[in-house]
Write a structure and sequence with these properties.
heterodimer, A: mainly alpha, two-stranded antiparallel sheet, 12 helices, 1% strand, B: mainly alpha, 15 helices
Chain lengths: 290, 275
Amino acid sequence: MSHLLRKNNIGWFFIIISVVAIGLFYFYPMVQALLLSFQSGMGANLQFVGLENYVRLLNDPTFIAALSNTVIYLLVQVPLMIVLALLFSVLLNDATLKFKGFFRTAIFLPCVTSLVAYSVIFKYLFGVDGLVNYFLVKFGLLSEAINWLADPLWAKVIIIMAITWRWTGYNMIFYLSALQNVDRSIYEAAKIDGASSFQQFFMITVPLLKPIILFTSITSTIGTLQIFDEVMNITNGGPGNATLSISQYIYFLSFKYTPDFGYAATVSYVIVVLIVILSIIQFRVAGDRK
Amino acid sequence: MRKAKRIVTYLFLSIASLFSLFPFLWMLVSMTNKSVDVTKGRLLPGTHFFENLKQLFLTVDMVPAFINSTIIAVITTFLTLFIASLAGYGFEMYRSRGKDMVFNILLLSLMIPFASIMIPLYRLFGDITPIFPSIGIDTLAAAILPTVTTAFFIFFFRQNTKMFPKELIEAGRMDGLSEFGIFFRIFVPTMKTTYAAAAIIAFMNSWNNYLWPLVILQSPENKTIPLLISTLGAGYAPDYGVIMTAIVIATLPTAIVFFFMQKHFVAGMMGSVKG
């Protein structure tokens, strides 16, 4: 008994650095941000203002724009990416498929690039004198170059395309690894019973991958809600505020406009609340009948 | 019918691969071309690479940024591996109800968005600056410190520790090794693959990190590669050939790391999702 106790106490020494560091660099700032959200003022001169920041939030058109942009990214991009990733993984899981390694590496490769570097590439691809315009005009699909990134709708589409390009392969790898653990005889049996590929996909693959789909949709949701690097480097939030994200707005409020850390903290808590609510919903949806 | 389905599959995967690879090919080709050829849609390799390279080093502080990024990424990787593997091992090998609760609380930090703690962190380092200037605002240490401990890596090491044969620990104890002795002499060498996988992910994360360095590093000499890349082409007439060269150089380290350790990388990501 004493032996076990000694070991348990030593166990705390193994985890102490992590506990202190995560406390100091995550939870302490989290509490500070909450306190800040009830304060207002320029730079370091902050005063408690009660709920003023939260009221301001509701009447702030820039915030409403940032929030709705971020929600649009989330609603379009996450399902699109997860469906694509599932599709790729199912196709690549076929043992008889040739060039599997090539396809897998090609689709996975985007996720080794830095967010900033690929954002810059996308910015130039879709610039007025960019490659996309050049070829569309050359092949007569467009009569003249479109300024994609200056159009509120196209700019959003390009941001969504960019994130999908970067992360689909990443999610695919998770599904592929999960599929490798699935017993092939299940599919053989289904085939004998006359199940079509579609039926096999929806009746076998999706239910089996449910936990991992939940995992990837939660991590993707958290990631997309925090989107910053892409909008900052592809459109800088423009045109107008058509692509501005919440994280970018927080950054602008803190370091670009007249600094108001209190209000920035208030805006940041919106992401926290969204992440918590969406995670709970996703758990509920995926965890039913268990 | 079967054959038609096959063809559609290959076609679909080929188009997807082309989309995935095209930005890479374009950046590699453009690196060797003149700016004007890049805008003219030239997709063939040119002979302008060395000129672009020369121009890059003349106009931009690529070398200091590369050195800063390397220092930050290497130190971050070592500290991350050290701290997270200690914790993962500690949580898995010495269980108690209290520790399980602590573990769950640490996991909650995964849901904390960086944007919401960015300002308090900045202010924290602002408070530290007068006392310890060497780890204060605008130092590489400040860029490193908040990034080295993440619940993801602790979780990752805990998951992988489950596969570690417990008999080795008993053997170590019988040989008279201390608990930390067992960790360093037995666990660390045995778990090389896990460490390799974690190292790749940690290095990539750190090398590509943008927002926190953007906030905390202000002076030009402290710029990292992503900070430098984001400022390229801000001028009136950007030189695309030069910018592409910079982007290739910025992507090279992570691409090389990935290619040489692809197996570990994939294994590592899978290890983190196993039940």
